[in-house]
Design a protein that fits this description.
27% of the residues lie in helices and 26% in strands. The protein is built from 9 helices and 18 strands. The strands form 4 sheets. Strands 3, 5, 6, 9, 10, 17 and 18 form a 7-stranded mixed sheet that branches. Helix 3 packs across helix 4 and helix 3 crosses helix 8. The chain is globular and about 55 Å long. The chain starts with a strand and ends with a strand.
């Protein structure tokens, strides 16, 4: 079957490790099911995999992609939950959780096999392309906002780095949930798009906000960390799920953290139940993922190049 995969590891030039071509079809496993992929979306996780972060040489070649929507063996339209081994279903009882492609072949292919427990019904209101955007970036944003930040309608939230998948999702979900959303970006066009999606104000990265916020959604890391901490009200919360600009900020702002009793919460992906809630939320409210570009699988390299350059606003989707 045709697939986009990591042929080797390239820490400095990740796209050099990306190959497109034929790979073996999935093997049948007890408790697992094979899904015919209709759409799959890119994540920065895929670039990190090509760099060897979370992916060892012993697992190569590895088909990339952890998000997908498609049709299962019984003809049902489904969405995949990307966290394998979260509860033991389909894996050994002592196996820790992993994201698809860290141990098991991914979704940038004509077919993918996952534990049957990891398959959820796709709401008919969502297209395959829309549904394929939800299991990683949108689920991450959902958990960051509503589980770990604990915000409620009327609260204020700062979303750093408008344009990325998680950040875009946080703006849309926050607006739909009645939050007062602020956003930052270095790019004027992305700030304008953030306003169109529902942000009340979008400012340049590092610029002072008109008010202190209840929570910050942080995925950028070192470049925005100090600004995130300084933007919080006393007792506020910063939720961090990524560090695309690096994980070692020049100023940790520890004095401000303890003096203002700020909370720092790490967040990774989300649960199957939260994904089910997110799917229902989108179906019921009309909220839809923001899609930057849809490409056929054989043009996957274009999508990777766009994501690496940071030019996208929303999700890049590959169709089979």
């Amino acid at each position: 079957m045709f697939a986009a995969y990591a042929a080797h590891i390239s820490p400095d030039q990740p796209l050099n490790a990306l190959e497109l071509g034929e790979r073996p079809s999935p093997q049948v496993r007890d408790g697992w099911t094979t899904v015919n992929v209709k759409a799959a979306s890119l994540n920065h996780h895929d670039l990190w995999s090509l760099r060897g972060v979370g992916l060892g040489e012993d697992k190569l070649p590895m088909i990339l992609g952890c998000d997908a929507a498609g049709v299962d063996e019984d003809g049902n339209e489904v969405v995949l939950h990307s966290v394998i081994g979260q509860t033991g279903y389909g894996v050994g009882p002592r196996e820790g959780r992993s994201i698809l492609t860290e141990k098991y072949q991914g979704t940038f292919a004509e077919q993918v096999t996952v534990p049957a427990w990891n398959v959820l019904p796709k709401p008919p209101e969502l297209s395959f392309e829309e549904a394929a955007c939800l299991p990683t970036a949108w689920l991450t944003a959902y958990r960051m906002l509503f589980t770990n930040a604990g915000v409620r309608p009327g609260d204020s939230v700062l979303v750093q780095g408008a344009g990325g998948g998680v950040a875009t999702a946080a703006i849309v979900l926050g607006k739909a949930a009645g939050l007062r959303v602020f956003a930052t970006s270095r790019d004027e066009a992305k700030r304008k798009r953030a306003l169109e999606l529902g942000a009340v104000e979008a400012v340049e990265s590092g610029a002072r906000l008109p008010q202190r916020v209840d929570a910050v959604i942080e995925t950028v890391g070192a470049a925005t960390w100090s600004h995130s901490i300084k933007s919080l009200r006393p007792g506020g919360t910063v939720v961090i799920s990524g560090a695309t600009s690096g994980d070692r900020p020049s100023h940790a702002e520890l004095t401000r953290v303890f003096f203002l009793e700020l909370k720092i919460v790490g967040s990774t992906m989300g649960s199957k139940d939260e994904l089910e809630d997110l799917l229902s939320f989108c179906a019921a409210t009309g909220v839809r993922p923001v899609i930057d570009k849809v490409l056929p699988l054989d043009r996957a390299r274009e999508g990777f190049e766009r994501m690496e350059a940071g030019g996208q606003f929303g999700k890049i989707v590959l169709t089979v």
